[in-house]
């Protein structure tokens, strides 16, 4: 009897632990994503055969703005604090991020910070240890487990909560989403470019959503596309992207507070990096945080000599280093 009771107790513990970590599908989101992929793909054909150049150019503009809101806004500014931004720039990036239709800045920053804190662990909401499709798609279609909800509460969001622009968007997100992500891309081609409502819907909303959502989600899944690692297998290559692999994703997860990135394979030459430098040249972005090659080399030497953690040593060297005020415009001199 004693062994039977113990076995039952162990089974109950395992069952409760599984329920604690279980994630259920959000079926309205699943249905929405099905429509995005089917109707967005149809939008490619309609854009090619029936849309005016005005509609195509306007859709391209709103698509780029949505991507900018995710990559430069949510990721580099709010999630990792790689630079500071003036109120006008923060307002602009907030409006851009709303056009991405991925949820509020607050919720995305909170989830991304948990993604970094639990990278390659079961608790990561974006399945960083499973595969590209899990990180790119599945992570967006499932509710957080009770375990993840507890971990999200523990994420420090004090800096975000002190940003009035972000909190304004969080409070009025549904209204802003309807106006900027639905009505604006639908009404503009229909009202001003003489398009039919069908063309405006397929191209202006569904095709744009297909592109923005997938590019924006690369923030959480790009390490499967670009990285080089010792256990690399051909099945992990995602070679359809034809992207040069490099070590920059590992660098980002090791030291995420660098404003630079390198989706074209060469670190510091990414689109987001270029846009941040443009904003800095316009005095809209300041205090660009980066890590020079010199600081990395000195930090590695210190880590070997002192047996201290590598990240701790590099960060110490970064604090000792005095960067030129305009280093973001003079990369050759800086590096």
From TrEMBL:
CDD domains: Delta9-FADS-like. It is a multi-pass membrane protein. The gene is LOC117574599. InterPro entries: Acyl-CoA_DS (IPR015876), FA_desaturase_dom (IPR005804). It comes from Drosophila albomicans (Fruit fly). GO terms for biological process: unsaturated fatty acid biosynthetic process. Belongs to the fatty acid desaturase type 1 family. This is Acyl-CoA Delta-9 desaturase. Its cofactor is Fe(2+). Residues 52-238 form the Fatty acid desaturase domain.
């Amino acid at each position: 009897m004693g062994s039977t009771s113990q076995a039952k107790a162990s089974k109950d513990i395992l069952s409760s632990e599984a329920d604690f970590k279980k994630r259920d599908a959000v079926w309205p989101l699943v249905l929405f994503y099905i429509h995005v992929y089917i109707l967005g793909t149809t939008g490619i054909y309609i854009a090619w055969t029936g849309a005016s150049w005005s509609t195509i150019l306007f859709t391209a503009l709103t698509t780029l703005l949505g991507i900018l809101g995710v990559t430069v806004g949510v990721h580099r500014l709010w999630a990792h604090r790689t630079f500071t931004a003036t109120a006008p720039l923060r307002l602009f990036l907030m409006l851009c991020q709303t056009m991405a239709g991925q949820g509020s800045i607050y919720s995305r920053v909170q989830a991304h910070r948990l993604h970094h804190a639990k990278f390659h662990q079961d608790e990561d909401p974006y399945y960083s240890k499973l595969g590209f499709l899990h990180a790119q798609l599945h992570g967006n279609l499932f509710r957080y487990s009770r375990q993840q909800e507890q971990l999200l509460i523990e994420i420090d969001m004090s800096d975000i909560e002190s940003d009035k622009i972000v909190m304004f968007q969080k409070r009025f997100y549904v209204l802003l989403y309807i106006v900027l992500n639905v009505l604006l891309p639908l009404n503009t081609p229909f009202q001003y470019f003489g398009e039919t409502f069908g063309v405006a819907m397929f191209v202006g909303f569904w095709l744009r959503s297909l592109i923005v959502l997938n590019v924006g989600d690369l923030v959480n899944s790009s390490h499967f596309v670009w990285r080089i690692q010792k256990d690399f297998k051909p099945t992990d290559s995602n070679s359809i992207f034809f992207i040069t692999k490099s070590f920059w994703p590992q660098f980002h997860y090791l030291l995420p507070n660098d404003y630079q990135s390198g989706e074209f394979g060469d670190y510091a030459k990414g689109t987001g990096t270029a846009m941040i430098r443009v904003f800095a040249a316009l005095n809209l972005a300041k205090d660009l945080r980066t890590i020079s090659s010199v600081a990395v080399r000195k930090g590695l030497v210190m880590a070997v000599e002192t047996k201290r953690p590598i990240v701790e040593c590099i960060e110490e060297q970064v604090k000792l280093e005095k960067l030129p005020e305009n280093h973001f415009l003079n990369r050759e001199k800086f590096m």
